[in-house]
Design goal:
Layout: H1 3-14, E1 23-25, H2 49-52, E2 57-63, H3 67-78, E3 86-89, H4 98-101, H5 113-116, H6 120-123, H7 134-147, E4 154-155, E5 158-166, E6 171-178, E7 184-195, E8 204-206, E9 217-220, H8 226-229, E10 245-249, H9 253-265, E11 268-273, E12 279-280, H10 289-296, H11 302-311, H12 336-339, H13 353-378, H14 382-387, E13 400-401, H15 405-408, E14 414-418, E15 426-427, E16 431-434, E17 437-440, E18 443-446, H16 458-461, E19 465-467, H17 474-481, E20 485-486, E21 490-491, E22 497-498, H18 511-533, E23 539-542, H19 544-556, H20 583-592, H21 599-612, E24 618-621
Parallel strand pairs: 2-3, 2-7, 3-4, 5-19, 7-22, 9-18, 10-11, 10-18, 11-14, 12-13
Antiparallel strand pairs: 1-8, 5-6, 6-7, 15-16, 16-17, 20-21, 23-24
Helix pairs in contact: 3-18, 18-21, 19-20
């Protein structure tokens, strides 16, 4: 059987009619709300929201205190907005976003930290490891907030529930609710709003019957309960697991990182798999500061150049002659259907796709074959090894990198429960059930990921209602017609509202790079608009003609991204739902999607637009 035939066979086992509906979205399900309780918050240190809005207003309201929100704040400060005029709202109890909530043992970034951590050149900070651990990333977020004077700008434990545009006063009216003690609601005004709610924000659970019947300890990996496991993120000595049978449900990036730590301490660990992860070498190491100064931070602009070199490896065209990063990401050319393909010979129309797909599979097969061979080299039990092999192309699921995950299955106290693509059938008061087999367990850990970052609108990403010009609902408008943005940051129906993609913008394997690129672009637009308004209150908005042209530009470059169709289900393809998109909606989906020729090409386009200096397609109304 060919690899492509095996890919199709394995995919068919995992396709479900309910798609993303098979999961429980914790954030909007009252019965499961307790799974997203914040175990890290120190409420006594959280400032009262009413004190943070003494006049019930601010100049810039940023929704999201993760790295994206921090970057938007930093770039807006550089554009001339004072830190004291910025308010950053987040439901969490601190900065960091996903790095605030996720504190499971073994957590680290999977992109080289010299690329992943932003503002290294500006702060002079040197990451301690090639792949920074979660605690360091969270601490660095706090350092950046302090360095740029925005530590006191945050309004934590606060949810934005509604944004409504007021055409008369040229400002947004926001309904906020803080849950520090008894919930208190505020109605505040903001001249400008930035929607920066992240890509992996809301945990999800599989819709397994009986979850709430389970009597043992049960939690999501993004809310790790060290009171159950023992230890801490700083010292992951999980000694309370020594007499416990533990089930980790899921085999994505989180499970790959935490599994070996749980296996080291648990009496027995069951790893429940629906789809195997594609696990490549990580090569973690400490950073030698002298090496870093001599080999990495060699000249002004070094981090941007390193990122550019990293991105240039995602192409089906000729690769750069020098590989500055040298990690396994840069040997995964098969990621181009997700990252975008700058190859000028790439597909232009649907008719080009069959030939393009054949070329992609030929290009990708050696890597995926090596990944599968790596399983045989490490896992001693042949039957287990066969079940751990990923039968899908690189671009279908985010690749994983770890040196201990596969070795975990050689331990006598570890059992792989492979569900053949179906998942768990049920959970009882003390067991998990797969098929006819029941497995008694004391602790269940859901490493089942997050709401998909694609699909929906910025309103859904933030769980709020956004009402723009003429009472237009963003949810309804985007559902009916798709986004109408210029460069992915400014929708013509929602003035003074800056977006952070990915719709009608680009993306990178390094999401923080993408956030910073759009933050820099948004800050430029706002700074130039303020200059043109010359001290007068104003509205900045894209024009209908400009957004129509931009949508066409995105559509014309969409073909390389179509390779995601036919993939094994994942959040990349909305659990296979993209394949079932009706023909009448496919054009809208392509127009609404990502810049298909890659982030460096996208940046080249918008940087040229900024260099022209005429704000083409933007109106500044005073």
């Amino acid at each position: 059987m060919s690899a492509q035939a095996r890919y199709a066979e394995e995919r068919s086992k995992r396709l479900r009619d309910d798609g993303v509906e098979q999961f429980i979205d914790i954030s909007i399900s009252e019965r499961f709300q307790h799974f997203q309780n914040d175990p890290w918050v120190e409420k006594s240190s959280i400032k009262d929201a009413k004190e943070m809005f003494p006049n019930n207003s601010c100049e810039m309201l940023i929704l999201g205190a993760g790295w994206g929100g921090l970057l938007y704040a930093v770039r807006m400060i550089e554009a001339g907005i004072k830190p004291e005029n910025i308010r950053i709202v987040d439901t969490a109890g601190g900065f960091g976003g996903t790095w605030y909530y996720n504190r499971y043992p073994g957590l680290s970034c999977d992109i080289e930290s010299y690329l992943y951590l932003p503002l290294l050149e500006e702060t002079g900070y040197i990451p301690k490891h090639r792949y920074s651990y979660g605690q360091e990333i969270r601490n660095y977020a706090n350092l950046v907030a302090e360095r740029y004077g925005i530590s006191d700008s945050a309004v934590f434990l606060t949810t934005a529930e509604r944004l409504e545009w007021n055409e008369t006063s040229k400002e947004w009216h926001a309904k906020l609710t803080q849950r520090k003690g008894d919930p208190q609601t505020l109605n505040v005004r903001a001249k400008f709003v930035a929607m920066v709610n992240g890509v992996l924000s809301w945990p999800k659970l599989p819709g397994i019957p009986g979850i709430l019947d389970y009597q043992g300890s049960l939690f999501h990996s993004s809310r790790w309960d060290y009171s159950v496991t023992g230890g801490s993120q700083e010292e992951p000595v999980l000694d309370k697991l020594q007499d416990k049978r533990v089930a980790v449900i899921g085999t994505g990036a989180s499970a790959v990182q935490l599994a070996s730590h749980v296996a080291r301490w648990a009496e027995h660990l069951y790893i429940v798999q629906r789809t195997p992860a594609a696990v490549d070498i990580r090569d973690q190491r400490q950073t030698d500061p002298e090496w870093f100064k001599k080999e990495v931070a060699t000249s002004k602009g070094w981090q941007r150049e390193r990122s550019r070199n990293f991105h240039q490896h995602f192409t089906t065209a000729e690769l750069p002659t020098v590989n500055l990063v040298g990690d396994q990401w840069t040997h995964a050319q098969g990621m181009v259907p997700i990252a975008g393909n700058p190859d000028p010979n790439g597909p232009k129309t649907p008719g080009d796709l069959p030939t393009y797909m054949e070329m992609l599979n030929i290009l990708d097969l050696p890597r995926q074959t090596r990944i599968r061979s790596r399983v045989d080299q490490i896992v001693s039990d042949h039957t287990v090894a066969e079940k751990l092999k990923p039968w899908y192309p690189t671009w279908c699921k985010r690749p994983c990198f770890h040196n201990e995950y596969l070795e975990t299955f050689n331990r006598k106290n570890v059992t792989l429960i492979d569900t053949g693509g179906k998942g768990i059938d049920s959970i009882t008061r003390d067991s998990i059930t797969v098929g006819s087999q029941s497995y008694p367990v004391d602790i269940v850990i859901f490493a089942t990921g997050f709401r998909p970052p694609y699909g929906g609108t910025p309103a859904e990403k933030a769980n709020l209602k956004i009402i723009g010009r003429n009472g237009l609902s963003m949810t309804q408008e985007w559902e009916n017609n798709g986004p109408s943005t210029l460069h992915g940051v400014l929708d013509c129906n929602f003035p003074n509202l800056f977006l952070s993609g990915p719709w009608q913008a680009s993306t990178s394997g390094n999401f923080l790079f993408n956030d910073d690129a759009l933050a820099t672009h948004s800050a430029y637009i706002l700074k130039e608009a303020k200059r043109r308004a010359d001290g007068r209150h104003f509205t900045v908005v894209s024009t209908p003609a400009a957004v129509e042209d931009w949508g066409m530009q995105v559509l014309m470059r969409s073909a390389p991204m179509a390779a995601i169709i036919g993939c094994t289900p994942s959040y990349f393809n909305l659990e296979g739902a993209i394949d079932r998109t009706p023909p009448q909606d496919q054009m809208k989906m392509a127009r609404s999607g990502l810049w298909g020729t890659g982030i460096e090409d996208f940046l080249k386009y918008i940087e040229a637009w900024r260099k022209e200096g005429n704000m083409m397609g933007i109106e500044v109304l005073v």
